[in-house]
Design goal:
Keywords: Glycosyltransferase, Magnesium, Pyrimidine biosynthesis, Transferase. Pathway: Pyrimidine metabolism; UMP biosynthesis via de novo pathway; UMP from orotate: step 1/2. Its cofactor is Mg(2+). Catalyzes the transfer of a ribosyl phosphate group from 5-phosphoribose 1-diphosphate to orotate, leading to the formation of orotidine monophosphate (OMP). This protein is an alpha/beta fold and 208 residues long. It has a single domain, classed as Rossmann fold, CATH 3.40.50. 40% of the residues lie in helices and 22% in strands. It has helices at residues 5-14, 47-64, 79-89, 130-141, 158-167, 177-186, 192-203, and strands at residues 18-20, 26-27, 33-34, 36-38, 70-74, 93-96, 109-110, 118-126, 145-154, 171-176. It has a six-stranded mixed sheet, with helices on both faces. Strands 1-4 form a two-stranded antiparallel sheet. The longest helix has 18 residues, at 47-64. The protein starts with a helix and ends in a 5-residue tail after the last helix.
Length: 208
Amino acid sequence: MPITSQLVAQKLLEIKAVSLQPTEPFTWASGIKSPIYCDNRLTMGFPEVRRLIAEGLAAKIKEAYPDVEVIAGTATAGIPHAAWVSELLNLPMIYIRGKAKGHGKGNQIEGILHDGQKVVIIEDLISTGGSVLEAVSATKEAGATVLGVMAIFTYGLPKGIQAFEEVGVAVDTLSSYDILIQEALEIDAINSDELKLLQSWKQDPTAW
């Protein structure tokens, strides 16, 4: 079965890794009211789904970045997916903390990374892009080359798209908010009025 964006969206909805509540929105840590909550950590508990994700990410990486030398995972949610992908590609793996440790060697990057190596960074979710772009910066500061970022899911928010464009980093994902809400409509998880609410949120999340 081909690993399509629609299939990944269906699986995320099935296991409730993504929840939609357009009429009873969630509140993010930033204070933003959101009709969607995404917790891709739940995929770890579903071997079929995590295998689908790993195979999808590995295929995208092989196609887009055939010269990749190291797979990196962002701490913490990107780590298991990076491990499964690096195994499929038979490549070394590292992971990148949000900040350097305050003890021991004070590492921000764990694992072996040589100067000049070509890295693809795996994240679970792209929202504004802030956390993964910090990982990109840390990897570059370590002397490596970041070929691009791969993730399971993106909200496709204008702020996030702009952030990646500003630093010139390519990003690709297995599925997206737009595809997922259409799939949710197809399986009657939402109705047409709720679809309109979900579409309006993406245009301006802070004012929604």
